[in-house]
Amino acid sequence: MDQVPEDWQRGLVIVAHPDDIEYGAAAAVARWTGMGKDIRYVLVTSGEAGIAGMPPAEAGPLREAEEIAAAEVVGVREVEFLGHPDGRVQETLALRRDLAAAIRRHRPEMVVLFHFGETWAPGYVNSADHRAVGRAGLDAISDAGNEWIFPELSDPPPWSARYAAVVGPNATHAVDVTSTIDLAAASLAAHRRYLEVLSEEPVESQVRAIIDMATSPKEGFPAARAVGFELYHFGG
Asked: Where along the sequence do coiled-coil regions lie (predicted)?
């Protein structure tokens, strides 16, 4: 398994919900910001349907605040929410347009996406939002570099990223995160209210189990802790 290329300066992470990034990818983000890279987040929803018993009007602002705090822990200070409905995101041209516009605004060389396959493993279905956002995001990278697909997006001008790295089970490349495990754990722990509702286990126990699983050693990659990515190349 090869190392994810790091010959780039600006990265954009695009996911569906607050906390998606913190389920492992934040460990890589902490490594990259520690190297002086400019990493930014775009979240398609505010996660407003994610807390049982809490109305979306209350949950949305809470989850946005938790995500902004989680980002700060790993050195990310630009976090954008696109306002699509949590749990009802659709893979449409409108979503592709919104994501292409975001890519043009932030002008990344590297785009990080979340696993968009039908399942995580046999018998474990992936979220509909994850599938829609991941697939639309991959298409939007090409859209952002083409002046004619969405001609109404004239400002800012087209932008072509060089890479996309998809977090998930089909990894072809990896990042050594041995030195950023504690930062990743603190970033996930910022989603305290969400985690308290998710499980009766103490938040700290949940965080440690999640981070340990997400950063387990990867076969063929020489690191004690690693995050795996499926790497795509573009023409930027």
From this structure: none
State the Cα–Cα distance between residues 65 and 188, nearest whole angstrom. 13
* 236 pLDDT tier (thresholds 50, 70, 90): low
For residue 91, give the nearest of 135, 50, 47, 53 by alpha carbon: 135
The model carries a pTM of 0.96
Contact 103, 144 (CB under 8 A): yes
Neighbours of 200 (CB within 10 A): 7
Range of the domain at 9: 2-233
Q: What CA–CA distances, in Å, run from 92 to 99, 132, 137, 140, 145?
A: 11, 8, 11, 11, 18
Q: Helix axis angle, 93-106 relative to 128-144, nearest 10°?
A: 60
Conformation bin of residue 19: beta by default, left when phi > 0, alpha when psi is -120 to 50: left
User: pLDDT digit string (tens) for 119-140?
Assistant: 988 889 999 999 999 999 999 9
CATH at 39: 3.40.50.10320
Count the Cβ atoms, other than its own, within 10 Å of residue 170: 11
